[in-house]
Design goal:
By secondary structure, this protein is α/β, with parallel strands linked by helices. It is built from 19 helices and 8 strands.
């Protein structure tokens, strides 16, 4: 249990001592031979948010495996040809029948175990190992959709809605079978190389920890859903900083002047009166394909933080910059916002490839008054200019005008300056920060934004 909790924490799931104690008590009242009851009981004790469930299930299957080694009981023999080879057409037909059955869940799990054992095994440098890809490449369950639908026996006069619902059910069952194969593969590999190592790549990450440039569609969807929660976290951090800043910094001159009455010993500290008002924020975002996920999420996050600033202006660019502030509102979906940005704004000028120099120039020419001595400028992008002029002098002028200026880069620091990246050149003009995940972005923004 202690190792399981440590693994959850390592994957970004917050589990405290009290939750761990509760989980230990749960185990004393559950039937330990009922694995699913143990799973649900521990989930109730350890998890705080539904978004943590996928990570929990993946780690649970590693720390509390359904079996050890090859399954020798309740096995399901795979169909074979007369010469002893696995009969793939017959196996696919068998899989389609189980997917169409209402009560085929247990049989599908047993079939997944045999598929991994007999189709997914290969010889590696360490000896026999297992691969989910090798197990599934010939089986190709995603191509069985029409066969499974036929097995569901929909009535001939089924409505379009009923057909769509049936297709969704079949896709979910196919995804469930694929997940069973991956879980079985992870279990067998973990017995060879260790569950801690398998957990680093075989268990779903928290969406906040996903690399923006490599995030899956599911992780990006979860990030969008969680943008309001992350905005609340950021707002609370900014509120705490603002409260602490109300005292102001120490005014050394007035403190020394007041110390004359005590022989020059500064006993009474005099603080400067803090400047009232909230800062202005200007966001300049590259929304080209290479960094679209990072910029889109950040724009959504900043839009949700509008109340924390006196004014927020959002600008987007590919090879030309245009203002997109008006496209964001509390009720607008990100997909609709992006559609409007690409159809109603002028962010593409020539060939549609990133051109930071041209984007900075059009921003300075058309919207230069947006950056003032009260503004905080945030530039989002990887700094890859397609070998075009980066226009460092234009960026330097904007940085000199702004009160604060920072560049958030979703690429790893070791890639800055490689290929067509001008990140190191830009980093000499503006302070650049690595922001590869939502968690890292939240920490950086809460630390950098002024109060």
């Amino acid at each position: 249990m202690a190792g399981f909790v440590a693994a959850l924490r390592a994957r970004g799931v917050p589990v405290g001592p009290s939750e761990t104690v509760d989980a230990g008590r749960v185990l004393t009242v559950l039937d330990l031979l009922d694995r699913e009851s143990v799973r649900e009981g521990l989930a109730c004790a350890l998890l705080r948010r539904p978004t943590h469930r996928a990570t929990f299930d993946g780690l649970f299957d590693l720390w509390f495996p359904v079996a050890v080694g090859e399954r020798t009981t309740e096995t399901r023999d795979l169909p074979r040809t007369p010469d002893g080879q696995i009969d793939l057409p017959a196996l696919r037909e068998q899989l389609a029948e189980l997917l169409a059955a209402e009560d085929g869940g247990r049989q599908l799990e047993l079939l997944a175990g045999q598929v991994v054992e007999q189709l997914g095994q290969y010889q590696s440098a360490r000896g026999p190992s297992f691969s989910a890809y090798q197990a599934m490449k010939d089986l190709a369950p995603q191509t069985l959709l029409s066969r499974v639908l036929a097995g569901l026996a929909l009535p001939p006069d089924a409505s379009e809605r009923d057909t769509e619902v049936a297709q969704r059910i079949v896709r979910e069952r196919i995804a469930g079978f694929r997940a069973s194969v991956e879980a079985e593969t992870n279990r067998r590999v973990a017995e060879q190389i260790g569950r801690d190592r398998v957990a680093t790549y075989g268990v779903a990450r928290q969406a906040e920890d996903a690399d923006f440039l490599r995030a899956s569609e599911r992780e990006l969807v979860e990030l969008r859903r969680g943008s309001q929660r992350l905005a609340r976290i950021l707002a609370s951090r900014l509120a705490v900083r603002r409260k602490k800043a109300r005292r102001g910094e120490i005014d050394l001159r007035k403190t020394l002047r007041a110390s004359m009455s005590t022989g020059g010993v500064p006993i009474d500290l005099v603080n400067r009166k803090p400047r009232p008002g909230r800062p202005e924020l200007v966001l300049l975002c590259d929304i080209s394909g290479s960094v679209a996920g990072f910029s889109n999420f950040t724009m959504l996050l900043v839009s949700a933080l509008r109340e924390q600033f006196s004014r927020v202006r959002i600008f987007a660019f590919v090879d030309r910059t245009d203002e997109v502030t008006g496209f964001f509102d509390p009720y607008a979906g990100l997909d609709n916002v992006l559609t409007r940005i690409f159809t109603e704004s002028r962010i593409i000028d020539a060939d549609g490839h990133s051109d930071y120099g041209q984007a900075l120039t059009t921003f300075a020419d058309n919207f230069g008054d947006a950056v003032t001595s009260r503004s905080s400028l945030l530039v989002l992008g990887d700094g890859r200019t397609n070998y075009r002029n980066p226009k460092l002098d234009v960026l330097r002028q904007l940085v000199d005008t702004a009160r604060h200026a920072h560049w958030l880069n979703p690429e790893p620091r070791n890639l800055w300056g490689t290929g067509d990246s001008a990140a190191r050149d830009y980093g000499e003009v503006i302070e650049m920060h690595e922001c590869r995940s939502a968690r890292q972005l939240t920490d950086v923004v809460s630390r950098l934004l002024p109060v």
